[in-house]
Amino acid sequence: MRNAYLAISYSNRKLFDKEVQSLIEICKTNDIKLLSFVDKYNFKENEEIEMMKTAFVEIDNSDFLIAELTTKSIGVGIEIGYAKAKGKPIIYLRKKGSEYSTTASGSSTYNIEYENGTHLKELMKKILKLLKKLPVIQ
User: Fold this and answer.
1) Which fold has domain 2-132?
2) Per-residue pLDDT reduced to its tens digit, 100-112
3) What Pfam families would the database entry show (predicted)?
């Protein structure tokens, strides 16, 4: 089983529940365990160092990173940069019509602009087939 890390803004997470559910479903169908960091962990304001250390360990343990950036996020940008430095494939997601991030796009292996959860699943299905061909990065 492969592991994927979902980077998504904590403050915007609830706005993207349908999309996250679509990602969970398509990953499960493809034998991929999806970790949504903001759903699994909850850190207090004075625990920033521990939070980032934990995020980096989880990214290290993942085969690739999915970054939902319909709304720009500094934290997600840091996660993308870390994954890129570690040689992890990165999938940059954003809803159609949202602001385009040149830094996220320039760091990503794949870019997806989706209309809704169903459309996201269709596009992710194609990308996950391509990722199956890549070697697992340790």
Assistant:
1) Rossmann fold (3.40.50)
2) 999 999 999 999 9
3) Nuc_deoxyrib_tr
